[in-house]
């Protein structure tokens, strides 16, 4: 099943509020946040042997990558917003 089918209502709601591109990016941020939460919960049980207060190294890598992806998506949303504002004022 496609992500477009699985999250149809959420995508439609965000596309209506923000436009197609920004709406889909907003849903992407939500999905990345959900993944971060799940990995974070898993990290509570899978701790590093070297430092028990931190998640296992593979989970730290996944968390870092997911956070980086969220940051990139957020920056694209900001750029799209700036472009739209510039078009409206110009």
Task: Outline the structure in words.
The chain is mainly alpha-helical and 90 residues long. The chain has one domain (3-89). The chain is built from four helices and no strands. It has helices at residues 3-6, 8-18, 20-45, 57-89.
Indicate the structural class.
mainly alpha
What is the tally of helical segments?
Answer: 4
Distance between the termini: 42 Å
Helix content: over 70%
Estimated share of beta-strand residues: under 5%
Please compute the radius of gyration using only Cα atoms. 17 Å
Series of H and E elements: HHHH
Chain-averaged pLDDT? 92
Number of domains: 1
**Number of E-state strands:** 0
Q: Uncertain spans, ≥5 residues at pLDDT below 50?
A: none
Would you spell out the secondary-structure blueprint of this structure?
Layout: H1 3-6, H2 8-18, H3 20-45, H4 57-89
Helix pairs in contact: 2-3, 3-4
Keyphrases for this structure?
90 residues; mainly alpha
Quick structural summary:
The chain has 90 residues and is mostly helical. Helix content is 82%, strand content 0%.
